[in-house]
Amino acid sequence: MASLGSVTAALRVTEVLEAIASRCVGPEGGQVLCTKPTGEVLLSRDGGRLLEALHVEHPLARMIVSCVSSHLKKTGDGAKTFIIFLCHLLRGLHAIREKDSFTSENTQTHQRHWKNCCQWKCISQALLTFQTQILDCIVDQFLSRHYLSVFSSSAKGWTVCRRSVESLLEAYFCGRVGRNNCRFISQLMCDYVFKCMDHESVVEGLELVDNCFLELNVGVTGLPVSDSRIVDGLVLHRDFSVYCPADGDIKMVMVTEVLQPPFSSSKSEFVLDSEAQFQASQCWIVERTKAVMKHLQSQNIKLLLSSVKQPDLVSYCARLHSISVVECLSSEEVSLVQRITGLLPCVLPQVPSQGEISDTTLVKFCKPLILRSKRYVHLGLVSTCAFIPHCVVLCAPVLGLVQQHESAFRGAFKMLQQLFTDLDLNYIIQTNAQRDSSPLACNNSRECSRPPEIGKYQDVIVKSENKLENTQTHSKAYSNVVASDTELKTRVTWSAHKETPLDTSQTNVILKCLSPEKNWVISDCELLVGSNPTGNPTAEDTRTEMSYDNVQVTSHPGKGCTLPVMYKSLEACTSLSYYCSSTLPAGCVLPVGGNFEILLHYYLVNYAKQCQQSAEATVSMLIANALLGIPKTLYKPKNGKDSFPQIYMRSLHALQTCQPMVSGQSGLEPVAGKYQLIASVIQCLAKILTVDLVINIKRQPQKIGDQDSEDELEH
Amino acid sequence: MSRFEAKKPSLCKTEPLTSEKVRFTLSVLKGILASCYGPSGRLKQLHNGLGGCVCTTSQSSALLRNLSVTHPVLKVLTASVQNHVSCFSDCGLFTAILCCNLIENIQKIGLTPTKVIKLNKYLLGLCTSYLKSEACSCRIPVDFSSTHIFLGLVRSILTSKPACMLTRKEADHISALILKAFLLTIPESAEDRVILGKSIIVPLKGQRVIDSAVLPGLLIEISEVQLRLLPTQKSSALKVALFCVSLSGDFSNAGEGTVVVPYQVSLENAVLEQLLNLGRQLVGDQVDLVLCQKVIHPSLKQFLSEHHIIAIDRVGVTLMEPLSKVTGATPIGSLNTIASTTYGSVKDLSSARFGSKHFFHLIPNEATVCSLLLCSRNDTAWEELKLTCQTAMHVLQLTIKEPWVLLGGGCTETHLAAYIRHKVHNEAEDVVREDGYSQAELRIATEAFCSALESVASSLEHDGGDILIDMKYGHFWSGQSDSASVVNWQDMLSRCGCGLYNSQEGLSWSFLRSTYHPFAPQKCLSQAAVGTASNLTVDCFTAKLSGLQVAIETANLILDLSYVIEDKN
């Protein structure tokens, strides 16, 4: 049996998924209760998990689900938005087809289908071209001027701003955990991040937490969520086998094998000649074990971690020598302890009794932790890496909720990890003469209004493109720029959203990131006053706000080196084809609530207007219109001033008059994630469009390749 | 080769709470739970119809464990109650009924989930901060110098479990025993950290409840034959060796290699020789009592008894920790040499007979372990009684940690409802300004919340009596009204639910179900009243507070559901 793989079919499938996703998306979305075949109950608002739980049958739907999950693997966020955006794209395409179908009415249905498919193939190509070339360009050139950053400057250098991270996490958890707990959980997560992360290498620390979060959290059921907390040190998910209370700093060793010498070792034969020999060897084993323990005690070791179960004799000897023992550590726990403390497992039976044991480490405390009448081992490890050990105790009335919070935490770590790394953008600008009279009014006006500065900027930017290697060139770049600041100060009328300190801070972050010594410092500092230009200030007081911004700007002389974009767009005006490679710098964020979508929509529409090739323009318009579907869904439950048309009109007005955009919500979202989402959806759509026929077969599709290639190698 | 089977698509349901079926099952569950609540609650008999044992109970833990609910929404509810019970032992029914009531009430008012959740959270915040505040007048600080409140607490728990089938006298006896057992677990010399001991419940079925007893130390059940082996009494303390390794002469840890044993070498003899050597050492060290977690070899046993050493084996792993605590001995894990520091001692050892069972009674010098010999005539009542005793012990421990109790008998619920009503009535404007909801919405949600609390209290009345609230303290009163006409409440009622106030204080009453004008319940609990009231009904503070939070969080969680996806594989 075969069915036509057309836009209509895909649309029908996606609309069903969209109906589900749109109810759970955003701060107004609800929880989903999934039951497993085993009877387990799982709570989730995670779009990826939701789609998996549905076990969709339709092949196109399955393809979409797999696209979503591969997107999630990369970014950890945006599954529901993925579906909504895809659905709107398909709707747009469907509408285009409806229009076309009037022209070729008399052709046979099947023929028409094939013909359509050829068209779809073309559109699919156009989409891919758009994604690889135009999208990057727009994101880099136009959108970048609206970015905010989670970094702020302080005396110590560039620091991660706690307030920004808070609002970032709050927006993230709004879509991930129940409405009841999102604020509490995001606060907990924020505390956790700031408690755990070292001042220097945030990314490294986040990576460790992301990998080992299973070991770093303890789930407790039956308590209210508000009892969740962060505990200092590491909590192992088991009890002591032997616990001897000890005070002060405690020396610890880790072993991976049984400490009692085996009666006979593997692959050897032990011939017992007499009963006395048997007794003697038993005695020797006991004496040997005692000697090892005594040796440990003499080295002042008070705690023994073991990845295997130790025999009774070892526990007994440990107790006699007042050494606490924790057994049966999982390999993950062993490697976590290793990563945190740098402690290597020590090989004890071979160690001569006199020798010093080098593989030891100190722990600050070692005590049992009782959570809901279950005992855990609580260790105050001393960290030697970028991660300061802390554990989260996640409490909830039911297990499903604990699991939901745990997976939301993991997703958030992934999101943060992505936020703190740069994203490369590559695109080719094929410019033509018309480009000089670009329809982007504000862009144009800016270029005209400030010719004297451009030269200076070029100077700076050339340097920054050469990848600043040391701070000296860095400061040189600054010194070049200071002059232009004074000029700028006088021009208050100038458009606000380009020259906000935020832009500059972000550029500086790029520079920082390029330079080898990344010194981001985390502190609890407040957000810069002027660093939220698109946020709170309303349209009325923009003017005053603007002047304030500029004053603020001059206070730190990083300002002048605006984005490389500026330089590039100028370059584009003169040369015909220009290959750009740029980065979406780490820490870029935008306010939530469809801000990114509306901005991208606006610039895409503008782009389409000036575009000559019809295919490119069509695709741009298609994507631009579909983008609006996301804020439309988000604002559906709102009415009055907060309804979508109002917000949209206000934003458009603000953009046209070059005023900062007003956002009703305080949350932030990372730009990189959004950008990748758009790219993933376009790729998925392109994939869907290339399928023309879905054929149902009875067998598993046979795997091709592996065996043959091996045969070939043998010949 | 594995067989692949296509996964069946899942079933996805929108807005589960709007479905009639779910509402119905929820109300059935609520009916079952509410009818069990309180001292006059009705019992439920659970059986599988295939000849399995019958469980008669009114406790949430037993009930929910055996009840199989199928709908996912109900599963969440019951799981959360069960988890609460396994944390705190008490207040399971309270949590479940409150949660059901709240869901039911909120569905009637038709606010959007987002708003309701926010409002519920706000109201819960009011409750918890009031209950934790000094001004709270439904909370009594525990007076450690008298057993008054502790006894009240234990008795409230016992009387609220009618399936234990206790008479008044028996209830008094058992509550005294429980309290005694608990007090025995408290160490006498308190250091910076107090570690409570353990009381072990020893079953003795077929005896009268009144025969139950508490004994310090441990009881180890033995056969009658072993009893005869008991040697003559010794005047001084007995030296004890406690083994955690098997003394049966087995040779289990041969390692991974091959062991070759020639024909003439007998490993059995070698091991036995080793065991006897051990025995000789024990004799040399003048040990009087050998306890072993696992099995002792008969020859060693024989050897030991020849030397007047009592040997008890197969003690089991659960008794090891209490044994080590009672005797002060370190469990020995070696067959070779025994360090003298590992020995412990007991004051005395005696044999005892209770009913048809024989026990060794280890009497400690000073230890925090005791045995509660619990008797009951039939199995189901014994099970219920055992659960109740465990609950009471746990609640006492919780009360030591947070030394407050809440007024029981429905008074806390009605008082809290009255407080919230009054608070919202007076301060609605301030609240509304902060958050994005209107005053009317706040009022509606408050009404739903408070009436949910009040219906928990009114679930205590199962005999069709009138349920009232007084307008001074906001306490719960119930009484039989024989005529429909206006009655003289003062004469008809005697004491409020918790027993703190009597009706002769010139109070005025209102029906709980009717709407009454919000009033400020009197703050500041008078200590004099607490002192004079003889039979106070009180509840565990920690358990009830957590139950309240869990109930509302669970209700919020269920109200937040927009889909149920059932995996049909």
From TrEMBL, chain A:
Q: Kindly list the biological process annotations in GO that this record carries.
A: chaperone-mediated protein complex assembly
Domain of life, per lineage: Eukaryota
- Cite the Gene3D superfamilies for this sequence: GroEL (3.50.7.10), GroEL-like equatorial domain (1.10.560.10)
Instruction: Cite the InterPro entries for this sequence.
Output: BBS10, Cpn60/GroEL/TCP-1, GroEL-like_apical_dom_sf, GROEL-like_equatorial_sf
Query: Known Pfam families for this protein?
Result: Cpn60_TCP1
Recall the GO molecular function terms of this protein's record: ATP binding
Question: Which stretches are annotated as coiled coil?
Answer: none
Q: What is this protein called?
A: Bardet-Biedl syndrome 10 protein isoform X1
Q: Which organism is it from?
A: Mesocricetus auratus (Golden hamster)
Q: What is the lineage of its organism?
A: Eukaryota, Metazoa, Chordata, Craniata, Vertebrata
TrEMBL record, chain B:
Coiled-coil boundaries = none
Principal location: cytoplasm
Which Pfam family is one of those matched by this entry?
A: Cpn60_TCP1
Gene Ontology MF term list: ATP binding; RNA polymerase II-specific DNA-binding transcription factor binding; unfolded protein binding
Task: Write out the annotated subcellular location.
Answer: Cytoplasm, Cytoskeleton, Microtubule organizing center, Centrosome; Cytoplasm, Cytosol; Nucleus
Q: How does it assemble?
A: Component of a complex composed at least of MKKS, BBS10, BBS12, TCP1, CCT2, CCT3, CCT4, CCT5 and CCT8. Interacts with STUB1. Interacts with BBS2 (via coiled coil domain). Interacts with CCDC28B. Interacts with BBS12. Interacts with SMARCC1, a component of the SWI/SNF complexes; the interaction takes place predominantly in the cytoplasm and may modulate SMARCC1 location. Interacts with DLEC1.
Briefly state the protein's biological role: Probable molecular chaperone that assists the folding of proteins upon ATP hydrolysis. Plays a role in the assembly of BBSome, a complex involved in ciliogenesis regulating transports vesicles to the cilia. May play a role in protein processing in limb, cardiac and reproductive system development. May play a role in cytokinesis.
Could you tell me which species this protein originates from? Mesocricetus auratus (Golden hamster)
Report what the protein is called: Molecular chaperone MKKS
